[in-house]
Write the structure tokens for this entry.
Amino acid sequence: MIIMKNLLATFLILFSTYGFADEVKLKDLNGFYSSGAIKSKSIVMILHGTRGHQNLEIITSLRDSLLENNIDSLTINLSYGIQNRDNDFLPCDIEHTHKQSESQKEIKLWYEYVKKMEYEKIHLIGHSRGGLDMINFYERLDKNNKTSISSIFLLAPISDGWEDTIMDYKEKYNINLIHLKNEPTKKLSINFLGCENATVYSDSFLDYYYIFVDAHGFQAHEDIYDRALTLHLVNTLSKVHIITASEDTIAPDTYERVNDVIKFRKNIELHIIDGADHFFRDIYFDDLMDIVLEVITE
């Protein structure tokens, strides 16, 4: 009995100190909400990268580190067209009909869910392609909703444009993508989101990859689909923090490209963490969190 009381006391102390984390459902979508014993003034929405999920190491590390610093968070799984998608990588051996533009609608649903919680500040974090998803989502908000976003962090974001993709597919696979946009219903067997010889329809492929770069180095989809800006960061947000890794082999050109854009967009703050890889593993994660916490807690 004494042992049980001690265990209960320990549990209550831990619970009251660290708060809780719990799975949440929104329609057919999965999320994970973490909150301290006392609700924080800010909440951070965190999004995974290509074909990923909310239990990836970098996502759970962000969630745990924020909670340790008394900052609430919500991590989410993009569905990719799968109801209540598991916390696992999206398989390659499926017929890919999902679209990036559909992911925007899901992020908006989670944003509306968070807004109802009445936090004073909402921050956005997106890793890799999730960074592009987050900035695309932000760009689609109306002016009033944009003012509720206090800061955006893009962690090692993908930055390839359509011309880069054309060149890459020509060199690696001897595939010419030039006329693909004229064949939206064509069924392809092609490298798609890191999947070799994936089965995907051309309209889904283009929704992820058909991105052009304008004269100022900004990226955008043409209006053939829903407009979805990536590095076209508007001045209604005081700071967008782009954090890159010196040893990144997945998005190795992002730092240089963003560095060229800074002269046109003064609201971008560019960081590079020397020695880090695309996932900011090991000691480099602490450097990443130092940047995030300095902004969120100021």
